[in-house]
Amino acid sequence: MSINASTGLITGTPTTAGSTNVTVRATDSTGPSGTTTFAWTISAAGSVTVTNPGPQTGTVGTAASLQINASDTAGGTLTYTATGLPAGLSINASTGLISGTPTAVGSSNVTVKATDSTGPSGTTTFAWTIGAAGSVTVTNPGAQTGTVGTAASLQINASDTAGGTLSYSATGLPAGLSINTSTGLITGTPTTAGGNNVTVKATDSTGPSGTTSFTWTINPGGGGCTAKQLLGNPGFETGTASPWTATSGVISNDTTEPAHSGTWDAWLDGYGSSHTDTLAQSVTLPTGCTTYGLSFWLHIDTSETTTSTAYDTLKVQVLNSSGTVLGTLATYSNLNAATGYTQRTFDLSAYAGQAVTVKFTGTEDSSQQTSFVIDDTAVNIG
């Protein structure tokens, strides 16, 4: 670095890290002069990066240890400092190791700084949560059963050595039931039959928590059942799909694929090219019935010659009101081709008390047609 004698401008490129006391003198040409002195610190050409260790947790009374790592291109010696550490913890200024035994419950935002002896520094910040010295254990109540329409009550019990206040939560409860977050009492009236995997969690206000899981099976209610057939337009004789939803062209009276009865049927696929057809209808299965049966007549013909590979398929599935597949009842293919119709029947009792969709999906590959022809469908309850 140098100073311009005429202008007083100091310029240049520092070549050495360090601190210097600089004195500048200005002299008038007639003789008088004045001086000033100041410090000038030159840092090394480099940087320090501190690796973030991510959120940390610990427990009062349990020793903790966390190594802080940093990369340094400045070439000097690193020293470490930290602010916001949980009570009872400290950082080794030379190694960056945080250690100690936490003494208080709480959450802290910790900032660690690593400084190179030549000047550059870097920081990182992370959360450190200290929980109480204790534990929560939730007593498993065992497998539970209930009935649609009949009030249910189950007290969840938990032991707690952490010393705070317990709160409760639950997932997977049968529809119609809920848990009291303060007492752990599960109450309500089940609305839907079926099996449920329930998990209850009890959390101490100081941090510790415990969980338990059990099954809760809700059986159909005994409120009586009126025998009837639930599907609309079951034989497609209206000549339109409604109340079915179907791919265009599926509802057919083409005599190439004659109906099982009447003149109309649902003809899925048969194109001999990559193609998918669907046919679906939603029904609500009431509780309290003894039988829940899906039936339909199915004819399959194909131009495929294989006797071992299912190139084209028809899936029969049950979906919930959100469109999630609850079960695949059957999968047919070109391997099931035969003359005439065959009646297929399935038990839907597992879905009692639910609004479900019966769906047929026919899928063909790129060559050789397979036709899946459906007629005279029914969902009978009784």
Automatic annotation (TrEMBL):
Q: Name one GO biological process term.
A: carbohydrate metabolic process
Q: Name one GO molecular function term.
A: calcium ion binding
**Domain (Dystroglycan-type cadherin-like) ranges:** 48-137, 138-225
- In residue numbers, the region (Disordered) covers 1-33
Pfam families listed in its UniProt record: He_PIG
The terms describing its cellular component in GO are: membrane
Q: InterPro entries per the record?
A: Cadg (IPR006644), Cadherin-like_sf (IPR015919), Ig-like_fold (IPR013783)
Output the SUPFAM superfamilies linked to this UniProt entry. Answer: Cadherin-like
Give the protein name, as stated in the record.
Answer: Dystroglycan-type cadherin-like domain-containing protein
Provenance organism: Solihabitans fulvus
What is the organism lineage in this UniProt record?
Bacteria, Bacillati, Actinomycetota, Actinomycetes, Pseudonocardiales
